[in-house]
Amino acid sequence: MKVIPRADHIVSRRDIDADALRVLNRLHENEYTAYLVGGSVRDLLLSRRPKDFDIGTDAHPYEIKKLFRNCWIIGRRFRLAHIKFGAKTIEVATFRKHVPAAEAAADAAATPEAPEASNEPVLVHSDEAKARRAHHDEHGIVRRDNVYGTPEEDAFRRDFTVNALFYDIATQSVIDYTGGLDDLHHKRIVSIGDPAIRFTEDPVRMLRAAVFAARLGFSMDDAVESTIASHGELILKASPARLLEEYFKILRSGYAEATFRELHRVGLLQLMTPELKQPPQGLWHALTRLDMYRRLHESIPADLVNPVLIGSLLVPLGLVRPDEDQLGLGMLTLPRKDVERLRHVLTTVPKLTDPNLPPRLLRGLPGRPSFHDAVTWLEIFGDAPEAVAHWKEVKARTPQPKPEPRRRGGHGHHPHAKHPPHEQHPPHQPHAEHAPHPTTTDGPRKRRRRGRRRRGRGGSGGSTPAA
User: Quick one: which of 303, 310, 366, 373 has its CA closest to 344?
Assistant: First the structure.
């Protein structure tokens, strides 16, 4: 273990989120060990602004809950504390240890899964917690990883050495258990432990190696890269839902083009999505435009919604077809609602730049549920700056439509699957520049009920509600 004192590193309290500091200080004041952990320490040492400030502690979840009224306990595989500060969340995790496959296989007693989320105190007895063990499936993939441990054990449980650095709020020192500082200096991605074993336990680590290499401008060390070459097909055993979420993270990162190029270089992209075995030039162009848009914003823009991200992959491949309810992309299953929403966006986008569009349809554009996403699409991928400037002004004054509730029954049939009502715009809608705020003065008159009220059965005297 190396401890680097404050005088020998560049991490400053001024660079740490104020709410994260509050959490660290309160844990420390209550005699718990509390470290800033993982990617935030790595990024601070690289003079980069961290996306998140995660905290590791020896306090158990129920103990964290007692210290923070704004704390929610979440998690199925492992309890985590989410401490809310407005829209911001500081994640606090109890130190864990890595359980080898052989040890986990010897433990036959599985612990029931916890509820997904709760804002109630969760009492977890320490003896019970220590008795829990990680469980691997028949492929060696970790399905449970919930054994409390020490800070050192927690560091060796992590994926890569550069992600296993800790910052001690008490001494303002950086703690390095795994050699991550040296790897950070040499700009290399090194696995903690044998990469063949670690990638077998969690195949998504191979994808993450490419993500970190692309985002940080690092290179994978020989052991990591050769293991991906020999064990790459393990990625097919990963959860498709988890991989889809990783794709969304990549597309929102600002490094999508570099990351997908790296995934293609090491052969993972072709395995996960064979449609991208020979990516067209249009794909790289689309991802470059997406990255440029993301980097204009300090944080992830709210308008980078899943349909827009999906479209950045599907449209260059020509895979958006009107006759399919659900699209797949290799081993990924794309949500039907997102693909359908993308189709509506692609229908609306040409109308935003059509000089011959009838005034009636022009006035109706801001009323479409797809309008906001269509303006975002035009801004990212279009080449019409004047139209973008105009529609962005209209968009800023137009309330974002609320998603309509899904109807029950019909095997998940979407209410807009046939004859979408938002495609029909009344001719009396005001011009787009003056349309954003709906009024109630011109609403339909209430029809008068005719006939006598029917008395309820059994002489209750209750009236039948109007249909």
Answer: 373
